[in-house]
Amino acid sequence: QGRAAEGPPRDADRAVVRAGAGGEGEKARIGFPALNGRLYESPFGSQLYMVFDEHKRCLATGDAWPDPVSLEKGKYTVRLHVRHHKASVLEGLKTLVMVLKTPLSKAIAVTAYSSYTNAVLKASKFTRKRLYSKQSTCLYLSAGSMASGTAPGSVLVGSIKFGKDEGGAKDVIEHDIMAIVPPKPPTASKAKSQVGGADAKKKKKKQPKTAAAGAEGGSDDNGTDEKEAESGFEDEIGKAVRAAKLAYISKLKDEKLSKALDSKVVNELLSVANNDEKRAVYEMKVKAYKSLKEHDKVVEACDMLLGCIDATKVAAFYGVKRPAASAQDENQKKESKEMEKDKKALVFAYISKASALMELAKAELDKVKAEAGKTGSGKDARLSQDWNDRFKKGLDDVLKWADEKKDKKALAPLQMFSLLAKGQNGKALKQLLASLKANPRDKDLMAQRTKVLSYLGWDDWNKELFSLW
């Protein structure tokens, strides 16, 4: 005898369903065709199902005649309670089929044809036809497209009406119709590869005969095709191997990562890689050198990465007003996607380069401040003109491409250091305090505040703030 346990469902006896194909608050019916519609003649003592949401709340219950259940978009668990005096019978219900009926987001229109051939060829449609008593005709229905949310194997249920309402006398006959959603058709590229594969098999079978013909002086087209196919296969393997090497190196840390970056493996990758692969290698180098805090090498890697991107082309693309995404054709969407990828790479490279230059310039400025502090002029010490120009150019490049809102977190420290490099310590402190107000627990900002106060000669403030902290 099966019994319904109290409380939420357990993992051992539940079926998970998802709702949402027909919109928010859709009316769904949960049924078990093998059990529903039978009460006294049913071999089982009772049947009851319960619907739980993700928070294990029971939202609805039902029996042999399921009622519609209002379900918001989300994930639900259905638990079925069935009674029988034999445990073996209940064991057989473990693979019981459950059916979830949900409304479509919109009706699917079907077209009627007078013959099967016309339905397949999408030829002449069925026109109006008068039928006399005991006379019949055939209709062949075809759906142009399926509604969103319908998966292959789903069963679509609807109705079709015949006749019309004339003079108040209803002469309309309605019939139920159903259809099974077929598998999705393959894309053009996949279909082409399948055809190519079939052709390759045919050519492979004919290879001995073709080779003999070639020996007699005939053409060897099949051999050429096979060589080209083999060459393409080797290229794919080469790309996969290079991608695996790059992924492995990027996971290394500390000393192992440092050795790997200077190894022959990386140089070999760059020597045979295409432009996209080179970009991936240089992006990996930038991230790796940043983690190792080797700022000189970060600058070098950023310059190499920037050399792989046509910045002029990206600037020209974004300098012209583009149509909305919904109004773009396939080629325009593809170009927009490529340009967006290039722009992100440019912003990443310029910000990384400017940040590395900032760290190098910070070390230089600390030296200048320390030397000037010995003579009592530490407050007025500034960065050398050469370093100032290098950092300024790096910051200018960032400001050309970065978005002030999206990249605000990366821009703030660069702009603040620009003020420090010019000797505008008061403005730098003001900006730093604004950043600290937004992120009061940021240790990097606190350390920077200590330095700025020291530059200003306000060491007493540092002591006071340290005691408060």
Report what the structure shows.
The chain is built from 16 helices and eleven strands. It is 51% helix and 15% strand. By secondary structure, it is an alpha+beta fold. The protein has a four-stranded antiparallel sheet with strand order 1-6-3-4, with no helix packed on it. The chain has a three-stranded antiparallel sheet with strand order 5-2-7, with no helix packed on it.
By DSSP, the count of extended strands is 11
Mean pLDDT: 76
Proportion of beta-strand residues: 5-15%
Task: Evaluate the radius of gyration.
Answer: 36 Å
H/E element order: EEEEEEHEEHEEEHHHHHHHHHHHHHH
What form results from the Cα inertia axes?
elongated
Side-by-side strand order of the widest sheet:
1-6-3-4
Helical element count? 16
Poorly predicted regions are 1-14, 205-219
Major sheet details: 4 strands, antiparallel
Structural class: alpha+beta
- Distance linking N and C termini: 67 Å
* Helix content class: 40-55%
Features:
469 residues; 16 helices; three-stranded antiparallel β-sheet; elongated; 11 strands; alpha+beta; four-stranded antiparallel β-sheet
In a nutshell, what does this entry contain?
This protein has 469 residues and is an alpha+beta fold.
Secondary structure layout plus pairing:
Elements: E1 15-19, E2 26-31, E3 47-52, E4 58-62, E5 69-71, E6 74-82, H1 87-91, E7 99-101, E8 110-113, H2 116-121, E9 140-143, E10 155-166, E11 169-180, H3 188-205, H4 207-215, H5 221-250, H6 254-261, H7 264-272, H8 275-292, H9 295-307, H10 311-318, H11 330-374, H12 385-401, H13 408-421, H14 425-438, H15 443-455, H16 459-468
Antiparallel strand pairs: 1-6, 2-5, 2-7, 3-4, 3-6, 8-9, 10-11
Helix pairs in contact: 5-8, 6-8, 8-9, 9-11, 10-11, 11-12, 11-13, 12-13, 13-14, 14-15
